[in-house]
Amino acid sequence: MTLTKNQITDTIQDKLDLSKTDAYEVMEELLEIIKDTIEDGNCLMISGFGKFSVNEKKARKGRNPATNKEMILSERRVVTFKCSGQLRKTINTLN
């Protein structure tokens, strides 16, 4: 199941005893901080959760799998996430 922004807002509202509007604003502001940090090319590390990094990909040859036609994939920036050891341990103990 996928967690939605509305569900996150509801959880913030319940846990912090905020109005729905205030909880939504808290979530939106946090997402803006994360987006701004990543857009600037900076890493974002949240202790106990993980690290978001921006990596540069060089242009390279590729192919369209539908047509098998070769093409050049332009250089781009990609976001990667590496979870913390603590989060990994928590996830693996749930199984």
> Per the principal axes of the C-alpha atoms, what is the gross shape?
elongated
- Give the uncertain stretches in residue-range form: none
The side-by-side strand order for the widest beta sheet comes to 1-2-5
Helix content: 40-55%
Number of strands: 5
Secondary structure category: alpha+beta
First-to-last CA distance: 16 Å
Radius of gyration: 19 Å
Strand content: 25-35%
Q: Can you count the helices?
A: 3
Main beta sheet, described? 3 strands, antiparallel
Could you tell me the mean pLDDT? 94
N to C succession of SSEs: HHEEEEEH
CATH architecture annotation name of the largest domain: Irregular
CATH T-level fold name of the largest domain: HU Protein, Chain A
CATH superfamily of the largest domain: IHF-like DNA-binding proteins
Top CATH class of the largest domain: Few Secondary Structures
Total tally of structural domains: 2
Describe the protein in words.
The structure is a single chain. The chain has 95 residues and is α+β, with helices and mostly antiparallel strands. The protein folds into 2 domains: 40 residues; 54 residues, HU Protein, Chain A (Irregular), CATH 4.10.520. It is built from 3 helices and 5 strands, in the order H-H-E-E-E-E-E-H. Strand 1 and strand 2 form a beta hairpin. Helix 1 crosses helix 2. The chain is elongated and about 55 Å long. The protein starts with a helix and ends with a helix. The mean pLDDT is 94.
